[in-house]
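A quick aside before the break. I want you to see a complete sequence-to-structure record at least once, exactly as it would be stored in a machine-readable document. Don't worry about memorizing anything.
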Amino acid sequence: IPDFYTVPKLSLTEPPADKLALLYAADRAARAYDPRIVKVDASFVEQVKEVLVWSSDGRMARDVQPMMRFGVSAIAEDGTKRQAGSSGGGGRYGLDYFTQLHKDAESHGREAARIAIAMLDARDAPAGDLPVVLGPGDSGILLHEAVGHGLEADFNRKETSNYSGQLGKQVASSLCTIVDDGTIGASRDRK
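That is the input. The structure line, written in C-alpha cells, reads:
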C-alpha cells in the first residue's frame, strides 16, 4: 500500500517545549499587533491514527495517518464594541508545517488579530435571500455536516442513507456543484 501521508518527523515525537514555544509566539504576535487585542487563545492539536487490516486470506495492510491542527483566536475591544478573529491551519504535517510561507505561528497570531481589529468597524450584513459561494478549505466542514455523513460508506453499505443506490444520479439542484478531490497531498480528509 502506498504511503499517502509522508511526514518526515511526526509532531508527537517533538519535545513539548517546542510546541509550547509556538503557542507563546502566536500569543505574543497577536497582542503586539494592536493594544485593543484583549484576549488570545492558541491551540495545538495532534494525533496519529494507525489502521491495521488483516484479510481472511492472511494479507495485512497498515496505514499511519498523522494529523496536526494549529489555531489562534483573538478578541479585540474598543469601547463597547467587541469582535473576534481567528487564523489557523494544519493537515498531515509535522512541525515542518510552520516553515511554510505565512504558516508560522506569528503569522497566524497576527492574522487573528488583524481580523478582530478589522471587525470592530464591520457593519451588519444585509438580510434576505443572497447567493452563497463556499471556497475550498474549512467550508468543507459545513458541506460535510449537511450531506457528508449520508455519503459515508458505512451508511451506504447498510443502505440506511438517503443516498443509497443513487450512484450516477442527480441528488441535488443543478445549481449545486461539489468536487471532492482526494489527490491533494497533505489534505485533512484524504483517504
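Two observations worth writing down. The chain is about 25% helix and 25% strand. Strands lie at 37-54, 60-78, 81-91. We'll return to this after the break.
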